[in-house]
Recover the amino acids of this structure.
């Protein structure tokens, strides 16, 4: 049901663009204003969210340690999984952000005859997530050729690499294939695995469909509808240089694509997609694990905390302590007053 | 454990397929055997926590204060500001499900609300529904819901089914620690007086007498004295421990579980023997405290504030006695608190001039990793002694033991104490076999103690939660003949014996220093015929 809602929502959005930019001829709105607004919402929203997180305190040093601590000199420390230096923390974060280290560890539980439980390595999610994020990144970078003049060598290089196989005309991008496959996998997984379906919300399906919609509209445009690339570039360059123009006859597919991208951008800061920013701020991963060595300061103070002092304790139990020859601070007679 | 089903039956009931209905539509059903009794109002009152009253989780009416929602909202708002971890964890979970099957309570019960992601989602949905614009407008469509009494009951039921072991966090791509969420969830529940008695009463006891069973100083002394009698019987050597001694070198603090319940008591005898040995051979002066006689910090299960109030005793006592540093016994969450909270909570203002960076006067080793807290784990300490050849050990005395090692969650995932205990264990036993990968070190499974520790009333839950650990033990038992499970946690020693008895009855549980003491050879001791448990030593059986 939730998946259907989300699918329907994405169709509705596409239809909106189709009618708006096509039948109603609002090319300016769909080509310029909405994308511009979306970028603004994205940038401002993203920053606001990060600042909002940043405003919350980090009172305690609570990293999850995933390896041997720094200890006696002859015990080998796991400097990345249990770092006690900034360098180690940086390495830990890099592995996490670039290679999804924690997902790599993933296992799957199974029950067997009798009372046996087993755990087997399960790397599909890791692979799917990695394929998804890296192809997404490549595609975003590739698109930079629309916004730059001259196109930087690195972007041209990425593009050349991506169309290495030289299939079809225009040549097929490898990332397009990987991307669609990865998103599809992430979606199918959500529907097929009962536990994952159980925890999935509309917000989990919606971005997947939206992204899939963006991918399909883009692919359709490139390989089938064949929109006018020159005009697209003209529009894109106009957007970034603030000399807004809408060239004639780009084709409605382009506006659908652009609109879905805009929705994604605007939706981003409001949603779980913010994990992109949050991953860097997660205290269980980005803190130094040497909390016995270096003191971590809590920025806020506990108020009105009363301690049970030794004096109070001795006053209550003095007699019993003296009875057992346990040392006391005040002799019995004095305490009895 | 009378009405507990047989292990095969309990196991056969595990089903990982969630119900058809959406989880928000599945009402909470508080099942006997899976929850602990409500906190005794006297205990709640004693430590000044609000809304102490008699209430019963099975009743419809939980006698909530009138403005309970407001209390929760204010509490939640405050904590979102105070804990970045909490705020981020509320916002960035992508529900990828990597953590779903990592929780021992889910593995053993199949209850989908025991999947860490969903456990946190119970709170997250309310956060979304009541605190975010999106959720307020779109409600359920945005995954939000309102805070109702049913939701509150669900929180209570499932947050106390989390043992805050952090296993889920290891697998989460963002390090989302569901323990952090349930710690705060429990803090919120505490604002309404909704604790369980297995936490509230130990907290009150620790506060008053220094230890969780409420043992007063004279009785504490008697218990230790009694161990000394036993040790004398077994070895011919009588330890003479000191208590509350000003000017001692080191203050020793261990969880009081070691002092009062088998098999922790054997570990406690182990400490006594080690210290006696060090005193006789090297003149090391270690003292015990009756005031700070609890290492385990039950405040950790209550609120950060209560944790601070209990923790402060350690430094206050070290300061009063003028010791150089503190040695900590084998305990789980005590060490999580020491490693990650203590210095922040009760740093310099409680730690006065006399404390030094810990160093072992016998070996000269400086524990640089504890430079600020001034507190060393006894596994680190003993490993150092053994490495420098300072202990005379005879492994043969443990020849009847085939050991495997349980990494207790908190030392494993809260500090990374993995190789020190292994080094010590391998130095004192001949046969040692690791459990399978994926069930040890940072991926270790919780004993399943959960909130209820050793409570009889939630034994079904504890057996379910204990399944993954017990299962890995069963594997090495069946395959290699392992018969002993070692650990460095008093809660483990309280919980694991029951769960072993249930799932793998042939395997026993012990602490690290019980094994050390068995192997430790005193000059001039009599020939030992039994181990600390009074069981015949190999080769010394009565004919
Ligand atoms: S692994 Fe982390 S992100 Fe994934 S569902 Fe669990 S808590 Fe959420
Ligand atoms: S019991 Fe452990 S694994 Fe389960 S939710 Fe709590 S912290 Fe996570």
């Amino acid at each position: 049901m939730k998946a259907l809602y989300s699918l329907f929502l994405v169709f509705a959005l596409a239809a909106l663009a189709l009618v708006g930019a096509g039948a109603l001829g609002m090319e300016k709105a769909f080509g310029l204003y909405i994308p511009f607004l979306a970028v603004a919402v994205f940038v401002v929203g993203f920053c606001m969210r990060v600042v909002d997180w940043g405003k919350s305190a980090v009172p305690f040093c609570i990293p999850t340690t995933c390896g041997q601590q720094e200890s006696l000199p002859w015990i080998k420390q796991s400097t990345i999984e249990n770092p006690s230096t900034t360098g180690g923390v940086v390495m830990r974060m890099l592995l996490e952000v670039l290679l999804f280290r924690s997902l790599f560890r993933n296992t799957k539980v199974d029950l067997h005859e009798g009372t046996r439980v087993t755990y087997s390595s399960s790397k599909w999610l890791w692979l799917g997530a990695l394929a998804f994020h890296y192809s997404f990144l490549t595609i975003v970078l590739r698109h930079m050729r629309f916004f730059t003049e001259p196109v930087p060598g690195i972007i041209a290089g990425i593009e050349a690499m991506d169309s290495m196989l030289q299939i079809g005309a225009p040549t097929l991008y490898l990332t397009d294939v990987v991307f669609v496959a990865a998103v599809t996998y992430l979606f199918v997984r959500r529907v097929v695995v009962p536990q994952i379906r159980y925890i999935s919300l509309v917000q989990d399906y919606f971005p997947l469909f939206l992204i899939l919609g963006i991918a399909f509209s883009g692919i359709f445009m490139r390989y089938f509808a064949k929109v006018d690339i020159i005009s697209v570039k003209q529009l894109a360059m106009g957007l970034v240089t603030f000399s807004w123009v809408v060239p004639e006859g780009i084709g409605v597919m382009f506006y659908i694509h652009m609109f879905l991208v805009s929705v994604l951008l605007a939706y981003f800061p409001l949603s779980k997609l913010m994990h992109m920013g949050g991953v860097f701020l997660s205290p269980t991963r980005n803190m130094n694990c040497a909390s016995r060595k270096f003191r971590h300061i809590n920025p806020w103070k506990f108020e009105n905390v009363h301690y049970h002092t030794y004096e109070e304790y001795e006053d209550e139990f003095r007699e019993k302590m003296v009875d057992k020859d346990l040392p006391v601070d005040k002799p019995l007679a004095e305490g009895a007053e | 454990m009378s009405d507990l089903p047989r292990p095969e039956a309990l196991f056969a009931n595990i089903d990982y397929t969630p119900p058809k209905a959406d989880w928000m539509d599945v009402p909470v059903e508080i099942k006997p055997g899976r929850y602990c009794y409500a906190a005794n109002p006297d205990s709640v009152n004693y430590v000044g926590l609000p809304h102490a009253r008699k209430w019963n989780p099975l009743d419809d009416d939980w006698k909530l204060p009138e403005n309970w929602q407001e209390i929760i909202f204010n509490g939640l708002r405050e904590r979102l500001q105070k804990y970045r971890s909490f705020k981020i964890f509320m916002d960035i979970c992508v529900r990828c499900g990597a953590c779903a099957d990592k929780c021992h309570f889910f593995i053993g019960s199949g209850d989908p609300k025991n999947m860490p992601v969903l456990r946190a989602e119970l709170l997250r949905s309310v956060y979304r529904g009541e605190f975010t614009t999106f959720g307020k407008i779109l409600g359920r469509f945005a995954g939000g819901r309102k805070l109702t009494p049913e939701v509150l009951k669900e929180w209570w039921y499932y947050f106390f089914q989390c043992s805050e072991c952090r296993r889920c966090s290891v697998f989460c791509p963002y390090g989302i620690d569901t323990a952090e969420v349930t710690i705060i969830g429990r803090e919120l529940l505490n604002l309404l007086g909704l604790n369980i008695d297995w936490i509230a009463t130990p907290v009150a006891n620790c506060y008053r007498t220094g230890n969780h069973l409420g043992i007063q100083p004279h009785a504490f002394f008697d218990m230790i004295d009694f161990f000394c009698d036993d040790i004398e019987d077994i070895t011919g050597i009588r330890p003479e421990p000191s208590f509350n001694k000003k000017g001692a070198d080191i203050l020793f603090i261990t969880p009081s579980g070691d002092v009062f319940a088998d098999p922790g008591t054997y570990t406690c005898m182990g400490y006594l023997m080690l210290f006696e040995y060090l005193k006789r051979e090297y003149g090391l002066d270690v003292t015990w405290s009756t005031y700070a006689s609890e290492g385990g910090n039950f405040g950790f299960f209550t609120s950060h504030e209560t944790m601070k109030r209990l923790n402060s005793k350690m430094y206050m006592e070290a300061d009063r006695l003028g010791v150089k540093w503190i040695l900590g016994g084998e305990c789980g969450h005590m060490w999580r608190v020491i490693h990650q909270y203590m210095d922040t909570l009760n740093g310099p203002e409680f730690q006065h001039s006399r404390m030094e960076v810990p160093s072992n006067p016998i070996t000269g080793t400086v524990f640089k990793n504890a430079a600020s807290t001034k507190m060393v784990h006894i596994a680190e300490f003993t490993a150092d002694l053994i490495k420098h050849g300072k202990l005379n050990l005879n492994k043969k005395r443990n020849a009847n033991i085939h050991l495997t090692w349980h990494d207790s969650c908190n030392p494993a995932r809260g500090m990374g104490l993995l190789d020190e205990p292994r080094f010590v264990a391998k130095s004192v036993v001949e046969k040692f076999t690791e459990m399978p990968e994926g069930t040890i070190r940072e991926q270790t499974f919780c004993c399943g103690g959960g909130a209820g520790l050793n409570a009889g009333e939630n034994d079904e839950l504890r057996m379910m939660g204990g399944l993954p650990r017990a299962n890995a033990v069963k594997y090495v038992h069946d395959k290699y003949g392992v018969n002993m499970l070692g650990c460095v946690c008093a809660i483990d020693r309280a919980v694991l014996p029951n769960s072993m008895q249930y799932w793998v009855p042939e395997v026993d549980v012990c602490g690290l220093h019980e094994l050390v003491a068995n192997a430790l050879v005193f000059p001039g001791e009599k020939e030992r015929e039994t181990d600390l448990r009074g069981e015949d030593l190999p080769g010394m059986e009565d004919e």
